[in-house]
């Protein structure tokens, strides 16, 4: 069971050139002044997408005090390899979820690491293959003549209007 769950939605209706849609969980400091919040306000967790020009990132940063040195350190998650550009350009809603588990949590002693475990009581057809691929490529399939590869999936309606309450 996660100790902390943060979930939020982001939608860039007009795209974005430079800015972030990340959230910061602020650090509890004696001089925390929310009326004068700025980019240098101390935070403990930073999470979410960020973009400037062609550079896109997905932040997950934990900022904490090093118990030996007394200095604050930032621990960054590994860089996301997925192309993030569509988050900022597709005009769709994206759901971001961060789960932080209890650091003392561990697998039970009887944990079974096998990828699949056969259920001896399950009834399946005699020719059932548990390892068969979900999809099988049809080698004889061909594209119809005149198929438009570059046709957009969705076609904009020039007569469509946004509802007045949007």
Description:
With 166 residues, the protein is mainly beta. The chain has a domain at 4-100: Jelly Rolls (Sandwich). Helix content is 3%, strand content 28%. It contains one helix and seven strands, in the order E-E-E-E-E-E-H-E. The protein has one helix at 85-89, and strands spanning 4-10, 18-20, 23-26, 43-52, 55-65, 72-76, 94-100. The strands form two sheets. Strands 2, 3, 4, 5 and 6 form a five-stranded antiparallel β-sheet that branches. The protein has a two-stranded antiparallel ribbon with strand order 1-7. Strand 4 and strand 5 form a beta hairpin. The longest helix has 5 residues, at 85-89. It is flat. The chain starts with a strand and ends in a 66-residue tail after the last strand.
Q: Could you estimate the helical fraction of the residues in percent? A: under 10%
Biggest sheet character: 5 strands, antiparallel
Q: Per CATH, which architecture of the domain at 4-100?
A: Sandwich
The total count of helices amounts to 1
Sequence of secondary-structure elements: EEEEEEHE
Top keywords for this entry?
five-stranded antiparallel sheet; Jelly Rolls; 7 strands; 166 residues; mainly beta
Give the gist of this structure.
The protein has 166 residues and is mainly β. Helix content is 3%, strand content 28%. It is flat and about 70 Å long.
